[in-house]
Design brief:
heterodimer; A: about 350 residues; mainly alpha; ABC transporter involved in vitamin B12 uptake, BtuC; 16 helices; globular; B: about 290 residues; about 5% strand
């Protein structure tokens, strides 16, 4: 009898460590002050955004520089549903996902006509179109933006402290949900197809993978997730404007930096990358534009000299994986096929 | 009626500028399948170089081209041999991300050196000179010069591609890189020459952009998008197509702006998306990407 095994020793340790970290983070309101909670929540949203971009670019090979389209769409959906329809903000976040996925269908139909690198710029045009449309909606503040009315925020929880806990848990929960969904996807049949596309698109196609269908589904799913995260981000910011909602720097440049540094095409990459990004930001952000300049230079250096990123280097040298994603064929007598593919 | 003729004419003339944005982009895509995300920021960089040259030597912007064009071409050659050649390969991710990083470096470098203030190149009396085409329709001398230069640039590139040894090397490398290498072409040098040429065109476009309107370090990405839209509208691999694409984009934006000032950019994007929907290979395609 043969079967496929996912877990290795390192992934068992990894899952145990992640579980422990999760417990510490869930009870963070007990040990962290208000500022720590806010910083952590922001970190979570970046982990989620980078993981989604990684799924899109690292696995499906759809290099988008326009995911800010869905961050902004999510943000504006939150404001529209909460202010114009009177919906509870949490419900609005949940609805932002499917609506964005719906919007992404015609968008994909258009920009999937562009190949490779031109696809990247096509996604940017779409984000620009979204930004220009948003600045035409005078009900939501037009070009100068709008703040979420205090009453909506106050109604979210009985006290200010509880509201901050609620937002924190929401950020943690949504990020865990996004990461969990990605792990489940990668362990599924579609995940195997995705991993095959990541490693060699032509070989995947000739092995019977419907490459364009898989890519389409991944584009749809990332739009779904990105818009939910976007809605949450602007619930935390409490103010939205076309320029902040559809910012290429905040929602794409930073996200690409995080993923490239951490390790593109690996699920652990964006998590490591976000930690590095925030350590750098907390220490160097006083430098302003010089800091961004350095960030660009570091990203170029990593792409040239260590394109697999930090986690990629660790994984290749030591064979580690933090999550059980690898597939190994275990044959009855206990002989193990060591040539198992990368996770 | 004359109002609309004016609007369309202005659109056509600015289309020449967009065609120059597009030509540099189409050139390097054609030769090495590289999409340069920093293209727009390099246009802005050229504008700042022209600013320094005009101030430093006390010459007018059009004369400064004699200095700015070779300077940018040398930068392009160096950029390709020193950096971008190492990113080329079957994987599209490295060149995209490296040029994206380059875009961030140029933007923030310019911000650090020149602040976020908007600048403009002053061309003197020629800026406001106009002549009458027909009753009620006036054409600016400078926009007309810009359009003529754009047509000349496109024509020059076309000649270079099909009539010179360098152009033959470009086409050979574009068709089949390994075979071109076997025939004795140093593709690293060919690619660097293509980038040098692309940045020479960028330099001309940058100077005209800076004379026409205000510029600041952040306007690069929008220029990249205009150039890209003109390339796709015109059809990949066709130099005259980029001119047609630029003009269509310019006219769409002018008509959009005439209807409602907020619609200028949106109208251009919508025409681009519409063409992508009904004719994804562009209006005048030559090679498939």
């Amino acid at each position: 009898m043969t079967k496929v095994e996912h877990a290795t020793t390192s992934s068992r340790i990894g899952v145990a460590l992640i579980g422990a970290a999760l417990i510490v983070l869930v009870v963070a309101p007990l040990w962290g002050d208000r500022q720590t909670l806010r910083l952590l929540a922001e970190i979570f949203t970046y982990v989620a955004l980078a993981s989604l971009w990684n799924l899109l670019a690292g696995y499906a090979g759809l290099v988008s520089v326009g995911q800010q389209a869905y961050v902004g769409l999510g943000g504006y959906l939150l404001f529209a549903l909460a202010m114009l329809v009177g919906m509870h903000p949490i419900l609005a976040i949940l609805i932002a996902g499917p609506v964005a996925a719906l919007v992404s269908v015609p968008v994909a139909a258009l920009i999937f006509r562009l190949r490779g690198a031109y696809f990247a710029i096509g996604t940017w045009v779409v984000a620009e179109v979204f930004r220009l449309i948003a600045s035409q909606i005078s009900l939501l503040g037009g070009g100068s933006g709008i703040s979420l009315p205090a009453q909506i925020v106050i109604n979210m929880a009985p006290s200010r402290q509880l509201r901050e806990f609620e937002t924190y848990w929401l950020a943690l929960g949504l990020t865990v949900l996004v990461l969990g969904a990605i792990v489940v996807l990668l362990r599924s049949r579609h995940g195997l197809a995705l991993t095959a596309i990541r490693d060699n698109e032509q070989a995947a196609q000739s092995s019977g993978v419907d490459v364009s269908r898989v890519k389409f589904i991944v584009y749809l799913l990332t739009a779904f997730g990105t818009a939910m995260v976007g809605a949450l981000i602007f619930l935390m910011k409490l103010r939205i404007s076309p320029d902040t909602a559809f910012s290429v720097n905040d929602w794409t440049a930073f996200v690409i930096f995080i993923t490239v540094i951490g390790g593109i095409g690996r699920i652990e990459g964006p998590i490591i990358g976000t930690v590095i990004f925030f350590v750098l930001r907390q220490t160097l952000s006083d430098l302003g534009s010089l800091y961004l300049l350095m960030m660009g230079a570091v990203a170029i250096a990593v792409m040239l000299f260590a394109p697999q990123g930090l986690w990629g280097m660790i994984a290749e040298r030591l064979g580690w994986q933090a999550l059980p994603l690898q597939r190994r064929l275990v044959i009855a007598a206990g002989t193990t096929d060591k040539t198992g593919a990368k996770p | 009626m004359t109002e609309w003729i004016n609007v369309i004419l202005q659109g056509v003339l600015i289309g020449g500028l967009y065609a120059m944005f597009a030509a540099g982009l189409a050139l390097i895509f054609g030769v090495m399948r590289l999409v340069n995300i920093a293209h727009g920021d390099l246009i802005v960089l050229a504008a700042y170089v022209a600013l320094l040259v005009t101030q430093g030597f006390g010459i007018d912007p059009l004369t400064s081209l004699i200095v700015v064009v070779p300077l940018m071409a040398i930068l392009g050659y160096g950029l390709q041999r020193g950096l971008l050649n190492f990113t080329l390969g079957p994987d599209i991710l490295p060149p995209l991300l490296v040029t994206f990083g380059l875009s961030i470096i140029i933007q923030n470098g310019l911000l650090e050196l020149f602040t976020a203030d908007s600048r403009k190149l002053l061309a003197g009396a020629i800026e406001i000179e106009t002549f009458k085409l027909m009753p009620g329709v006036w054409i600016g001398v400078l926009p007309l010069i810009q359009f003529i230069v754009a047509v000349a640039v496109i024509w020059g590139l076309q000649m270079l591609f099909y009539r010179t040894a360098l152009g033959r090397a470009f086409r050979a490398t574009s068709d089949d890189q390994p075979v071109a290498q076997l025939m004795g072409l140093d593709t690293r040098h060919v690619f660097a020459m293509a980038m040098a040429l692309s940045l020479a065109v960028i330099a001309i476009a940058g100077v005209f952009l800076a004379v026409r309107a205000n510029f600041d370090p952040a306007i690069g990405p929008a220029r990249l998008i205009f150039g890209f839209e003109a390339v796709i509208i015109g059809g990949l691999g066709s130099m005259w197509g980029t001119l047609a694409g630029g003009i269509i984009l310019g006219v769409s934006q002018a008509i959009g702006a005439q209807i409602d000032p907020g619609w200028q950019l949106l109208a251009g994007h919508i025409v681009f998306l519409a063409i992508l929907a009904v004719r994804p290979e562009g209006l005048f395609p030559k090679v498939s990407g």
